[in-house]
Write a structure and sequence with these properties.
Blueprint lengths: L26 H12 L11 E6 L4 E6 L2 E7 L2 E2 L8 E10 L29 E6 L3 E6 L8 E3 L3 E4 H14 L6 H9 L5 E14 L1
Parallel strand pairs: 1-10, 4-8, 7-9
Antiparallel strand pairs: 1-2, 2-3, 5-6, 5-10, 6-7
Helix pairs in contact: 1-2, 1-3
């Protein structure tokens, strides 16, 4: 299988994650890109499950099947003051069209909650939990943070990329959905849906 390189992305880990100074992608452009990904046919499920590997030094997220890299995406990681946690974790659930609630942290003082679908919601389309309850992978409007250490402990991805990763995780985790399901969820931006995996997916976060 050939290695597939994806364009710049960012993933976010954590309830602590929130907006930073950034270049914002126009909403329609983001939605068009996400819709194309959502309607793509799912990959055929292999006997060997996938796992995710986040390389903090390379600021890259890899989708692995055994020793083979089947996808790779650039990511943003935590600032030195808010480092992304290292270790081996397990994804057990995902939330599509999540709300955002400011954490009890100094950097979030004065910020207000953002409903699902709100243009300033830093969670955007989907968040993938890997260390509950505070750390997860999600998309971002802050495209200029990709490849940088700019989050509050999070791994950020480009929105179309995190939709792609979420689809792969759901499939490998025993909770696949047809393309029509993704199209419906992505179009109903104010409707939150949670997906629980029957087979947790491993995430390795290393320097």
């Amino acid at each position: 299988m050939s290695l597939i390189r994806k364009g710049s992305i960012a993933v976010v880990l954590g309830l602590a994650c929130g907006p930073a100074h950034a270049t914002v992608v126009p909403a329609q452009q983001t939605q068009d890109t996400i819709s194309r990904v959502a309607t793509a046919a799912p990959t055929s499920r292999k006997a060997e499950p996938v796992r995710l590997r986040v390389d903090l030094s390379e600021r890259t997220l890899y989708v692995m099947r055994g020793d083979e890299t089947v996808r790779e995406y650039p990511v943003a990681i935590g600032q030195p003051a808010h480092p992304t946690p290292e270790g081996t974790f397990h994804i057990r659930r995902l939330v599509w069209n999540p709300a955002w609630v400011p954490p009890d942290a100094g950097w979030a003082r004065g910020k207000t909650p953002k409903a699902p679908g709100h243009p300033n919601n830093p969670m955007v389309k989907v968040k993938i939990f890997f260390q509950e309850p505070d750390y997860y992978i999600h998309g971002t409007h802050a495209v200029d943070s990709l490849g940088q250490a700019e989050s509050h402990g999070c791994v950020r991805m480009r929105n179309s990329d995190v939709v792609d990763v979420a689809r792969i995780v759901m499939e490998s985790g025993g909770s696949p959905r047809p393309p029509s399901w993704f199209q419906r969820v992505l179009n109903r931006v104010r409707s939150t849906e949670e997906v629980r995996l029957s087979d947790p997916v491993v995430v390795e976060v290393r320097e």
